[in-house]
Amino acid sequence: MLTELTAYNHIVIGIQNSFICNFVNELNVNKCNYLMEKGVRLGNMQKYGWYCLFFLGILISFSSETIAQEKKEYTVLYYPNGAKASEGYMRDGQPDGYWISYYPNGTKKSEGNRKNFLLDSIWVFYNQLGDTAEKISY
Predict the structure, then answer these.
(1) Are 28 and 13 in contact (CB under 8 A)?
(2) C-alpha distance from residue 122 to each of 110, 114, 125, 127, 134 (Å)
(3) Number of neighbours of residue 21 by Cβ within 10 angstroms
(4) How many helices and strands in the chain, by DSSP H and E?
(5) Were both Cys, which of 14, 25, 47, 107 would link to 2 (CB 3.0–4.6 Å)?
(6) Contact (Cβ atoms closer than 8 angstroms) between residue 15 and residue 6
(7) Where are the domains of the chain?
C-alpha cells in the first residue's frame, strides 16, 4: 500500500513507509536522484534493475534502489580551556542540523538549525550574560 505521494519533475510515485523519490530527471531519464522520507532528503541512490507499478490506473516504471546514507555524527567542540564551544550534528566535516554555540564562560552564544551547512529557519543569538540579543530568520 502506498502511504505518501509527492511530485518531483515529471512523475508522482510513493513507496511503503512514506519513502518518496524522483525517478525521472530532466537531464537523465529513469535516474533516481535521491530518497526522501516525509519531505526530508535521506541520501543518494543507485539503480539495480527496473520494475513497474500499477497505481490509480497509471503504469509507472521505476528502478529498485539502494541508499547511500549521508551519515551525521553528534559532535562537541571545546575551547582550549576545556569549556564547551559548540555542539551539534556534523556531516562531511561541517555543521548540519541543530547547533548550539557557547561563549568561553559557558553561557549560550547562539542556537539554530543548519541545512546543507547554511543557517536555516530561526536562529537565536545571546549576549555574554545569556540574555536574548537577537532572533534572525534565515
Answers:
(1) no
(2) 11, 10, 10, 17, 10
(3) 22
(4) 0, 12
(5) 14
(6) no
(7) 6-67, 73-137
Give CA–CA dist 75/94, Å, rounded.
Answer: 10
Residue whose grid cell is 537565536: 124
H-run or E-run covering 51: strand 40-55
Distance separating alpha carbons of residues 138 and 118, to the nearest angstrom:
9
- What are the pLDDT digits (tens) for 5-35? 333 333 334 443 333 344 333 333 444 444 4
Residue-wise pLDDT for 79-95, tens only, equals 998 999 999 999 988 99
Neighbour tally for 106: CB within 10 Å: 11
> Residues 121, 135: contact at Cβ < 8 Å?
no
**pLDDT of 72:** 87
Distance CA 15, CA 60 (A): 12
Q: How far apart are CA 38 and CA 40, in angstroms?
A: 6
